[in-house]
Every structure is written in structure tokens, then in C-alpha cells.
Amino acid sequence: xxxxxxxTTHAELIDERTTFTLAELCRACSVEGEYIEAMIxxxxxxxxxxxxxxxxxxxxxxxxxxxxxxxxxxLGVNLPGAALALDLLERIAELDAQLExxxx
Amino acid sequence: MCIRSTEQGNSVDYRDYYKxxxxxxxxxxxxxxxxxxxxxxxYHPDVSKEADAEERFKxxxxxxxxxxxxxxxxxxxQLGEQWQQGQNFTPPPDWDAGFEFSGGGYTSADAGFHSDxxxxxxxxxxxxxxxxxxxxxxxxxxxxxxxxKVLIDLEDSINGASRxxxxxxxxxxxxxxxxxRERTLNVRIPKGIHPGQQLRLAGQGGPGLxxxxxxxxxxxxxxxxxxLYRLEGTDVYLDLPVAPWEAALGASVKVPTxxxxxxxxxxxxxxxxxxxxxxxRGLPGKTPGHMYVVLQIALPPxxxxxxxxxxxxxxxxxxxxxxxxxxxx
Lengths: 104, 329
Fold this sequence. Notes:
Chain A is mostly helical and 104 residues long.
């Protein structure tokens, strides 16, 4: 640990410039490569570079994958259902932000 | 997968599983399944906006785990109807005599997360999965990556901060039980972090097996609501009340920003909702965000003779019809 403060855990910021390889995304979300491929086919993930297997995924892919896994596991949603849910959730988040902005 | 706890007579809070699922005690198995599915969708932590969604989701999962299993349900029913949710409860000795819990596996949603009440009755899960574990083949010696959320204040992003974050980590005890251990990490919040970004803490996830290294911990950053400012990415929004004459004639007013007060020039003839940009006064960073000030015209109350006289004067001297475009004369 290089941090001066021994008790402080070093955190690495994952921002808009951070990208993930297929292996990193699989590891981060505990899924197999085929699962990621299927998510790409359903349009849930859109790799920044899609020359398979040398994909590059955006930081947002991490969240989309994690949510897809948990919706499938907890609610029995299939991939097209998860894709729809994710799109709607993002739309709701946008509308909430808009509502927040226009609230008197 | 289900083993009985051997210690007897621990006092725990009673859980009314029927009430949690919102069904009658004589509900059919189909009713129970339907009620569970509906509530699971409602409280799923990735879907629900409610603050206690995760807690409710686990509670509903536990209730379903007992009531969907006819043996567990029968044993639970036999405790009687006189108990209230949250009431102090000690299982009577031999309360489960004659019942055989065949287990049937835990619902994956809450593996390893059960109330003390559940564990007192049905034992603990053995070898439950950690949160975030998906379908995965054997052979991965590296620990699981874990995911959690962290709630921070706007000030933490402006100044950078060190924040203690407490995680409840399911762990296998030496005798194979899953238990929750509290672990506190002091996490450095980098300056300029904004909503939707994440932090990766290397090696702070699940422990590896054998010589395998530990997994990583991913933290999703969410912001607590700020009384003055709203965030949109790296941009900061502020609603600024202005007097009608300030908006109409123009003015220079003092405005709070996240990095101290500044003087803002309001151009003349500014309308309600006009957006003014203060460059680079958003969240700090390599490319700092901007600050947007949204004008909100505040009306002075007509609560004195002189105020009423002024309004009257405007009415008489200004040819102003705010409904000119509504097609009514």
C-alpha cells in the first residue's frame, strides 16, 4: 500500500475514459464470455470496439451487465426482457432528472 | 443444503411472513407465488427508487422461501397466529417435531442473508453464495468481484474526502456456516467524482481460494440530495430567485457557487427560467464542469398600501397582457 495513510484504501476511479476488456468485464460481473456475447446480440451492450474477441467496453457496460445478471437471477427475466427493463430504467432516470430540473 | 441450528431457545424478533407478502394465512401456493413475484419486482434494488428497497427485497425473499415450501410453511403455521411482526419470540422446544425439511435450496436472491428469526427456525445456509455471484463454472481460483453502492455528499466530490464505508460481507466460517461480518474500509473519494462513476478497490472483493488472489470491490457512487445544487454529470445547477426589477432592468447579484460566492451579471430583460452559465464552476476535474444558474422570478407580496399602489401603477401604465397568445380577448 503506497498511500501515506495506512488505513485508507486506494480507490481507482472508473470514469468515461476507462474501458474494459472482455476478460475484465467477465471477471467483474462473474459471467462467462458467451453471456456477454448474448448481451451484445440483444443490444444490451454496445462495445466501443467490436473486433471480437478484442472488445472494448465502456464503464457503463459494467453497470448494465451487473443489473442484467441480477434481474435474470432475481426476477427470472430473459435477455430481451432485461434489455427492455434497462432501457426503461434509463428513460425513467432521465425523466426524473428533467422533473427535478423543472420543479418549482 | 439446510442444516438445523443446534443451539435452542434464542430469542429473536418474530417475522410475519404472510403480512410481509401481503397475503392471508389461508392463501394458496399460487397466491403466494404471485404476491412474491409482484413484490420482488417492486422492491428489486436495481429497479426500486425506495431507500429501503434492498432490505424489503430480502425480507420478501425470505418470506417466500418459507411459504413456498409446503413443509416449511406447515411448520411455520404451527407456531400459531397470535404472534405480531417484530414481537420477541423464542421457538418452543420441539416446535418442529414431525416435520422434515428437505431443503430444496435457497432462493438465490437471498442466499446467505436470513433474519435471526429464520435461522432460529430453519438453520443457516451452508455454502451460500456471495452477493454478486453469477452462474460460473468451477475452476476460478480468484475471489469474486463484489459490488456495492456508496452515498456521498456534493462536498465530498468538491474537496475530495476520506469516507469510512461499512460492508456486510458473507463469509464461510470454519465449520461451513455463512455468517455476515462487518468490514469497514476507509475509502478515498477522488475530487471531481460525479454521479454514475464507479470506484474500483483492488483486492477488496471476495477472498481467493487457495493461492488465488482476492477479487475487487466495485463501488457505485450516488449523491445525497443537496439543499441548493443539482448535479448533471459534472455540471452544477442552481435555482436563483430574483426580483422582477432585477430580471427586467438587469443587475449584478451575489451568487453562491460550490467554490465560493461570485458576482453574477443578470442581463436586462431576462425572463423566468433563463439559464446563465458560469464557466468552469461545476465539479472540479481535468475538464471541469460548468455552473448553470436558472433564474426564478420571485413576486414581492402586495401586503402594504405602497406595494399595492406600485402594482396598480404597473397595471395602469404597462400595456401588458400575459395571455396575449391564448386566443382569448
